[in-house]
Amino acid sequence: MNYDSLPNDPVMLMSFLNTQLRDHYPSLEALAEAYEFQVEDVVAKLKSIDYEYDAKTNQFV
């Protein structure tokens, strides 16, 4: 899969990423590698709706 297959809507993206992080990936970096996206791009997009990645809980909060 790649970045283009991720949801475009920030809320849907956050939900998708949190599900993937919870169920399949130990870190945002591992998820980014699998989906071929830049961590900074996703972090910036979700920051626009006031969500930030929390490495301790491995989710966007």
Can you describe what's shown?
- The protein is mainly alpha-helical and 61 residues long.
- The chain has one domain.
- It is 51% helix and 7% strand.
- The chain is built from 3 helices and 2 strands.
- The protein has a two-stranded antiparallel sheet with strand order 1-2.
- It is globular.
- The model has no long low-confidence stretch (mean pLDDT 95).
Number of helices: 3
Query: Total strand count, please?
Result: 2
Q: Which sequence of SSEs, written as H and E, runs from N to C?
A: HHHEE
- Percent strand equals 5-15%
List keywords for this structure.
61 residues, mainly alpha, 51% helix
Question: In summary, what is this structure?
Answer:
By secondary structure, the chain is mainly alpha-helical.
Write the layout of secondary structure elements.
Elements: H1 10-23, H2 28-35, H3 39-47, E1 53-54, E2 59-60
Antiparallel strand pairs: 1-2
